[in-house]
Amino acid sequence: MSCECLSHNSLLARTLLMNDSFVNRIPPLIKNFGFGMFCLGATLALGVVLSSQSIGNAIVRIKMQDAPIQVKGVAEIEVVSDRATWRGTVRARAKTLSQAFEILETGTNKLRAMLVTHEFKADEINACEVDTTIVFAKNSKAENTNVIESYVLSQGTTVRTMNVVSVRDLAFRATDLIKEGVEIDSGAPSYYVSVLESIKLTLLEKATENGYERASLLARGSKSEVGGLISASQGVFQIVPVGSTDISDYGVSDTSTINKTVKAVVTLAYQIEQ
After folding, report:
1. Are 248 and 238 in contact (CB under 8 A)?
2. pLDDT at residue 68, as a whole number
3. Domain boundaries, the chain
């Protein structure tokens, strides 16, 4: 059918509909059926629009409820070490083994006297076995020969005590024995906190409280409330000197200072309620 025929038929249809006598000849059943179909179509269209809007609002609400809020909670506390260890090593050199042993014995006796002066108890002092090293003479090519040049003896002494301040003083004073002819290596003392595990538990509780406060603050800013806890993870503890900002992904465990700061971090995720 050509476009001209379609245009002619459309014009004819409009002309007939405008003619009241033609409209009146249309059977009532057909007119009522057409009106009913129109109403049905309008109702369905309205229902689709309203349903789409309701579904959209529901999706938004679900998304808002499914999106948790994630925060980090932190806590720290300053602690004082209540245990300490120190190790000193006395050495002696001589051409004969017996001479070297006499020198070593003299040096270790002087060290022990110093330990007594610092009021360390006998059960806090542990003397290690004597280590013997034979030094051979070298030839013109700097190669060892079979000729024994000297003997070197060494003996370590370890102090483990709760007298932390005395260990600190000992570490500074031990080298005074050098003035008395004693060859000694004074190691750096190590300081520990014996109740560290209970401190960690306390910090975890405080860090969790801090995390909840942060989540509540963020929720109030968006006119929401904090819901249930979804997940929680514990970070590593950082045990650092007071005032230090050192951190490590694997944790820091300082033993060089008496006064320390223990830090804890937790990561928390909460539901948000509108």
Report:
1. yes
2. 87
3. 3-61, 68-80+195-273, 83-192
Instruction: Tell me the per-residue pLDDT of 2-29, one tens digit each, with 9 for 90 and over.
Output: 444 434 444 444 444 445 554 455 455 4
CATH class, range 83-192: alpha beta
Alpha helices per DSSP H over the chain: 3-18, 20-25, 28-66, 97-117, 164-173, 196-221
**Contacts for 137 with CB less than 8 Å, ≥ 6 apart:** 144, 145, 147, 148, 149
Instruction: Tell me the two tokens of residue 75.
Output: 């806590």
CA distance 3 to 247: 83
Amino acid, single-letter form, for residue 159: V
The one-letter amino acid at 248: S
CATH architecture of 68-80+195-273: 2-Layer Sandwich (3.30)
Between 31 and 82, the more confident residue is 82
